[in-house]
Amino acid sequence: MMTGGWSSHLGEAIVGRAPALGQRNFRRYFYGQICSVLGTFIQAVALSWLVYRLTGSPALLGLTAFLSQAPQLVVAPLAGVMIDRFDRRRLMIGLQCIFAAQALTLAALVFFDAVEVWHLLALAALLGVLNSFDLPTRQSLLLYLVDDKSTLANAVALNAAVVHSGRLLGPPIAGLLLAFVPESVCFLINALSYLGPISAVLAIRAEIPRQRNLKTGSALLEVLAFIRGNPSARGALLAVAMVNVTASSYVVLMPVFAKDVFAGSAQALGWLLGMGGAGALTASLYLSTRARAELNQNFMIGSCAVAAVGMIGFSLAGYCGSLGLGMPMVGLIGAGIGATNIVGNTRLQHLAPEGLRGRVISIFGSTRFGFDALGGLFAGALAAGIGVLPVTAGLGLLLLPACLGLSRTLKPCTQPR
User: What is the spatial distance between Cα 3 and Cα 40, in angstroms, rounded to a whole number?
Assistant: First the structure.
C-alpha cells in the first residue's frame, strides 16, 4: 500500500511537470528513444577518435563530420515530401534497420583490422543521408503522439532532453570503453541500441494522416512559399542556422582540444563532450517546464549569446591550458545551442499547417544539421592552418554581433494552426 501510494504520487508529480509523459503513445516513444540515443553518441565519439587516431588531421575530422550531416542540406527537403506522403511508422522502422547495418559494418571493419579512411568517409556520408530522413520523421511524429495538443511544446523539449541525456552520458561512457576496448565494441553497442525505437514504434497506436498524391515539385514550392511568407518561421530558421554554423563546430574540434591542447586521452574527450551534453540537457529540462509564450524572440537571442560567450571562454581556457576552466565553458556552449534548436523547433511545430508539418520540420533539420556540417568543415580546414584556439575564439566573436541582428528578424510566435 505504502509503496503503491508513494509510486503513484511520484508518477503524478512527474506527469504534472511533464504532461506529455501522461500520454501512452508519447511515453512509449520516449522510452524507446533512450537506449538508441545513448548508442548514437557512443558511436559518434568512437568514430571521431578513430578518424583522429588513424590520420591525426583536424581537416579530416571536419570532413567526416561534414559528410555525416551535409546531405541534409539537399536530401532533407526531399525527405519531407516522402514523410508527408508515406506511413511515418514504417519509414522510421526501416531507417532504424539501416542505421543498425551501418554500425555493424563499422564494427566489422575495425574488428578485422580492414578499416581505411575512405571506408569511414563513405559510411559517414551514408549516415548523413539516413539522418536526412530520420530527424524529420521523428519530429513530425510528435504531434500525433500527444492527444492534448497543448502539451506539444513539452513533448518537443522532452524529446530533446532524451537526445541531450545521450550527449551527457554517451561520450564519457565511450571514453571509458575506448580506454579498454577497440572502437568496434562501441559500434556494436550502437547497432544493438536500435532495437529500442523499433519496439517502441511497433507499439504506437495513432492515426497519422498521409498525402498519397503529393507531387515532389509542387510540394517543395508549397513549403518554400510558407516560409517566405511567414516572418516568424524565417526568423526561427535564421537563428538555428546562425548558431549551428558557428558554435556547433566545437564538436568537430574537440578531439584536437582533448589530445593536443589539454594533453588528454579519449577519456578527456568523453568528459568534454559530456559537458556539452550536460549543458544542452539542462536547457531542455528547463524548457520542458516553460509555457510556449515564454519561448519568444528575446529567449532565442539570449541563447545564441550564451553559446557565443561559451566559445570565447573555451578558447581562453585553451590558451591557459586549463581543462577545469574549459569544461564549464563547453557546458555554456551546449546550453546555448540546445536552447536555440529546441525553441526554433517548437516555434516551427506550432506555426506549420497540418499538411506541411513533415516538410517544415525537414527544412528545420536541413538547417540545423546542414549548417552544422558547413561550420564544422570550415572550422576544421581553418584549424588545420591556423590552429583550433584562434578559430574557436573567432567564431564566438562572430556570433556575438550576429545575435543583435536577430531582434530585427524574429517575431512573436503566432497561434498553432
Answer: 36
